[in-house]
């Protein structure tokens, strides 16, 4: 097939829908972000339950430890599971833990649910599916593997687009790893690069049953509208469920929207009732002394100083919560506030670019230099993707200079020999503060794909606790230490040369990578 045939389905990008911000921020401290609970559940926890990780090896070792100690549930959502030795070791850990559960007295309690993307997880002869089939065969009652297939890849389009290219249409991109009541939020996939030398972000929420329940229900909901992997490597939908690419698209998307919004709204109602009950019980005439006594004896949980808000973005299903919250944060950030925003793939939506260029806060945007881009050195057309990102970066930098915003909006490029860069999220520093009170961490890259094509989830972590704010600040500093400030001379370097054909094609296909 000619390369033009491969690009044909990519030439007409869908028209983006602009969503108005839902509200304004309240005036004081971390509590100014409580408006987010009008959209999603608010989970109040102690900051002592939050641990920020810094390295791929730390992430990998934690995954193994958590799998080995899980008793009730292991729920893992990722783009794909790799096929190397490190990934096999993870599968072996799952098998060992499931085996122990089988041998325990009574019926086995441990349930394992894995959600991956269908197209990425099916790539190649040896793939995510072949890695997991032995678990399905050995533990059919305890293991579930769901493969999400975007409803936008169907009909002639599905027949024409070859492997790898079909992943441009839409993916399951959520990365959540939970074990009993411990939850890891990250942008990292389950692949050896993400366990060794691909820098990402990772946060562990310990002993957080309500948060673990929410993400279990979310993964279950997406799993219910996904293809179910069978022991013989075939796939089939759950009985009575509309098929994502053979059935009616509108009906499928409506069902998916209903399932996911049921999870979000029921959790929001539960948390509101819990909040009201806690507030009411604290008002019932107990003196400060008796409250302290109850706390000392374990009768009352400590007051939360940290709040977790799950932000979901699933535009194919008409769910745009993450987009609404992110746009509002960028819109309402005050003068002299600082926003550190990072993405491994710098390809911001027009709405995000307009807000960054048109609002008052200072921005420090961290992105990948060409050498640490995940596509650097790739074969074929994919090898030109780093150059396309350079072109997009140069265009944005030129716009910053044209508007004389170089002092307020600064680009920095991550560079580290032998590593690639995949971190994404933001840290918000209020005016006059040296520490962040809010961070976003999860799967979205702030690009067109994240907003319009893929299934995404991240959390907003808001904290009043200085020790946790310091952890988040150190995480930000550690990432930005490996960077250099972008200037006009950056684009004069030989490795920043962008071929004419890349410049011509980039505007046509930038919404697909």
TrEMBL record:
Domain PLD phosphodiesterase: start-end pairs: 168-194
Swiss-Prot/TrEMBL catalytic activity: a CDP-1,2-diacyl-sn-glycerol + sn-glycerol 3-phosphate = a 1,2-diacyl-sn-glycero-3-phospho-(1'-sn-glycero-3'-phosphate) + CMP + H(+)
Compartments, record wording: Mitochondrion
GO MF entries: ATP binding; CDP-diacylglycerol-glycerol-3-phosphate 3-phosphatidyltransferase activity
SUPFAM superfamilies (alphabetical): Phospholipase D/nuclease
Keyword annotations from UniProtKB, A to Z: ATP-binding, Lipid biosynthesis, Lipid metabolism, Mitochondrion, Nucleotide-binding, Phospholipid biosynthesis, Phospholipid metabolism, Repeat, Signal, Transferase
Superkingdom of the organism of origin: Eukaryota
Pathway it works in: Phospholipid metabolism; phosphatidylglycerol biosynthesis; phosphatidylglycerol from CDP-diacylglycerol: step 1/2
A GO biological process held by the record: cardiolipin biosynthetic process
Signal peptide residues on this chain, from the entry's feature table: 1-19
A single Gene Ontology CC term: mitochondrion
Keyword Transferase tagged: yes
UniProt-listed InterPro entries: PGS1, PLipase_D/transphosphatidylase
EC annotation from Swiss-Prot or TrEMBL: 2.7.8.5
Role description: Functions in the biosynthesis of the anionic phospholipids phosphatidylglycerol and cardiolipin.
Family (UniProt): Belongs to the CDP-alcohol phosphatidyltransferase class-II family.
PANTHER family: CDP-DIACYLGLYCEROL--GLYCEROL-3-PHOSPHATE 3-PHOSPHATIDYLTRANSFERASE, MITOCHONDRIAL, CDP-DIACYLGLYCEROL--SERINE O-PHOSPHATIDYLTRANSFERASE
Protein name: CDP-diacylglycerol--glycerol-3-phosphate 3-phosphatidyltransferase
Gene: Pgs1
């Amino acid at each position: 097939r000619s390369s033009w045939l491969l690009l044909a389905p990519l030439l007409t990008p869908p028209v983006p829908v602009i969503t108005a911000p839902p509200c304004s921020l309240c005036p004081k401290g971390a509590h100014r972000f409580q408006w987010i609970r009008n959209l999603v559940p608010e989970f109040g926890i102690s900051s002592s339950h939050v641990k920020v990780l810094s390295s791929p090896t730390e992430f990998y070792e934690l995954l193994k430890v958590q799998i080995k100690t899980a008793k009730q549930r292991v729920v893992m959502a990722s783009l794909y599971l790799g096929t190397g030795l490190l990934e096999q070791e993870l599968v072996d850990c799952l098998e060992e833990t499931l085996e122990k559960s089988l041998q325990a007295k009574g019926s086995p309690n441990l349930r394992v649910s894995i959600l991956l993307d269908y197209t990425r997880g099916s790539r190649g002869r040896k793939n995510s599916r072949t890695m997991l089939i032995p678990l399905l065969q050995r533990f059919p009652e305890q293991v579930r593997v769901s493969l999400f297939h975007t409803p936008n890849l169907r009909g002639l389009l599905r027949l024409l687009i070859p492997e790898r290219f079909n992943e441009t249409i839409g993916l399951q991109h959520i990365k959540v790893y939970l074990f009993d009541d411990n939850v890891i939020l990250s942008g990292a996939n389950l692949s050896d690069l993400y366990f060794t030398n691909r820098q990402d972000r990772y946060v562990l929420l310990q002993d957080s049953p309500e948060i673990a329940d929410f993400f279990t229900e979310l993964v279950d909901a997406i799993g219910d509208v996904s293809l179910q992997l069978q022991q013989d490597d075939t796939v089939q939908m759950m009985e009575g469920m509309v098929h994502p690419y053979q059935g009616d698209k509108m009906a499928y998307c409506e069902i998916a929207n209903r399932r996911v919004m049921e999870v979000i709204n029921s959790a929001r109602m539960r948390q509101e009732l819990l909040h009201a009950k806690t507030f009411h019980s604290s008002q019932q005439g107990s003196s400060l002394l008796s409250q302290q006594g109850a706390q000392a004896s374990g009768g009352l949980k400590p007051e939360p100083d940290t709040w977790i808000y799950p932000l979901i973005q699933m535009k194919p299903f008409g769910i745009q919560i993450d987009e609404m919250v992110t746009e509002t944060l960028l819109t309402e950030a005050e003068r002299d506030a600082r926003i550190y925003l990072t993405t491994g793939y710098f390809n911001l939506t027009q709405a995000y670019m307009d807000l960054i260029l048109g609002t008052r806060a200072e921005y420090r945007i961290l992105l990948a230099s060409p050498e640490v881009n995940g596509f650097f050195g790739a074969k074929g057309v994919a090898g030109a993707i780093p150059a396309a990102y350079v072109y997009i970066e140069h265009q944005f930098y030129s716009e910053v200079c044209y508007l004389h915003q170089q002092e307020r909006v600064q680009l920095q490029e991550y560079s580290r020999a032998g590593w690639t860069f995949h971190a994404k999220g933001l840290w918000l520093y209020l005016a006059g503060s040296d520490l962040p009170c809010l961070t976003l961490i999860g799967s979205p890259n702030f690009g067109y794909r994240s907003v319009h094509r893929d299934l995404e989830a991240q959390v907003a972590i808001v904290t009043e606790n200085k020790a946790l704010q310091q952890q988040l600040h150190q995480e930000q500093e550690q990432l930005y230490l490996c960077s250099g400030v972008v200037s006009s001379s950056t684009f004069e370097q030989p490795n920043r040369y962008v071929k004419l054909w890349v410049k011509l094609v980039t505007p046509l296909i930038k919404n697909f990578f």
